[in-house]
Every structure is written in structure tokens, then in C-alpha cells.
Amino acid sequence: MKNLSQLQKLLWESPGCPGFHRLAPRSTLFPFSDDKTARKINKEFSPWILSLAGKWKFRYISNPENPPQNFCSPELKDESWNNIAVQGCWQMQGYDHPHYTNSAMSWLNSPPSVPS
Q1: Is 95 exposed, middle or buried (0-12, 13-18, 19+ CB in 10 A)?
Q2: What is the pLDDT of residues 65-98, one digit of tens each?
Q3: 49 CB contacts (<8 Å, ≥6 apart)?
Q4: pTM attached to this predicted model
Q5: DSSP at 78
């Protein structure tokens, strides 16, 4: 078994992070019970589609190594958290600022290590 320090590697520095808990890829087609139904109604009315758009609870923290206690728990108390619009970009909703780069790394650390 791996030692504890290996298990505690920062998730956001792991090359596998984008796939963490991700479902297998699938077609983005909209399902209907048959072709006749698909031709007569709008995709938004498919009973197999669930939009995630809306207001979501959000709490910006400046240090991801110290998240709120039990933040993964279904019993988390998030009443004091703000709401943000989903679909949206939290940086454009008043949290932190946008980060852009199109040519070189913005810091000197070697990937996947990031600065503190």
C-alpha cells in the first residue's frame, strides 16, 4: 500500500485530476422514447434531460488546502454561503480574478506543481 504522503498528494496537482469522479464520455444527443416524439417536441422537454443551470451555493476560499470542515458531507451547513449563477464563471461573479495564459506557464514551478 502507498504511504500516507503519497495518498495526500494535492488533487489539483495530479495529472488525473480532470478525470476524478468523471463519468464515462457519452453522446450529447438528446434521448427520446421514439423518433416520432423526438420530431414533435423540443429537446428541453425530454424526460431524460436534467439541466444543472440555476443558482448554486458557493464559497470562495483563498487556500484550497484548508477547505471548510466536512465540505464533502451531505450534512454541510451552507446557509451562509453565497449563490452564483450556473452556467457561469465564478471569477466574473466577483470572486478572485480571471487568469489567462496562451503561451507560457505563469509561474516558475515545474508542472504539475503549483505555487502556494
Answers
A1: middle
A2: 788 888 888 888 899 999 999 989 898 899 988 7
A3: 30, 31, 43
A4: 0.55
A5: -
| Cβ-based neighbour number of residue 14 at 10 Å | 12
Cell 484548508 belongs to 66
Contact 18, 11 (CB under 8 A): no
Q: Which residue has the cell 457519452?
A: 26
- The verdict on whether omega for the bond into residue 87 sits within 30 degrees of 0, i.e. cis, is yes
End-to-end CA distance of the chain: 29
| Max Cα-Cα span within the chain | 58
Instruction: Count each helix (H run) and each strand (E run) in the chain, helices first.
Output: 2, 2
Q: Cell numbers of 21, please?
A: 469522479
